[in-house]
Sequence to fold (247 residues):
Amino acid sequence: MEAIKKKYLMLFNCILLATGLTGGPLLLRLYFIRGGKRIWLSSALGSAVGAVLLGFHSDGAVNQSNKDYYLGFFLTVGAAVTSGLLFPLVELMYIKTKQSLTYSLLIEMQIVSSVVASLFCIVGMFVNNDFKAIPREGKEYELGEVKYYVVLVAIAILWQIYFIGTAGVIFCSTSLLAGVIVAVMVPITEILAILFYHESFKSEKGIALFLSLWGFMSYFCGDYMKAKKRSSELGPGENLPPETNLQ
Fold:
């Protein structure tokens, strides 16, 4: 019964991760395509500076200068490095402290990380005068002022769902699995953007999709072969020891 609960909890966190990682960037695309321009505002809502570039550098972006392009490139690389380091560091912290998985612990971690990231972005909003521009931008938004604020709130909620789901997957399994899911969901987000926003499907997007799906299948094939090998080494009546971090 305990093993079944762990599997359902793992599935639940995978769904949270996938939902947040697809919904957040898609709404950011909608925000920028329909008239939004405040980079620091969307960064604060997502609690991650680099993540907003998925929306900012969509095919719907216009009048993009070379400065914005290179800034987007380096921030994207920085966000990738930070995210790559964050997953194993979270898992390492859990192993060192030997704490059991509780959603109060996940929420506490999320509050701390979100507050720090939001404070960083708020400084940028002050420097860029975003607070004064928000009411004006809401009135000029193509979908209407009410939907403008609905989109902003939805972006914030979906990104928090993503971070909670990521932490849950790490605690239920490993940071490697969390990274694999993130990798495979990014091109899926691109496909959904093509379907909903009619963006062009360029060659680099196709390559990214292929590599992500390849890595996703390689992970599960390798895990299956490893479990099969371990099973063959066990004697009669012995069971595989659990590999999950969840206590």
Notes: The chain is about 80% helix and 0% strand. Residues 49-62, 243-247 have pLDDT under 50 and may be disordered. Residues 39-53+66-140 form one domain.
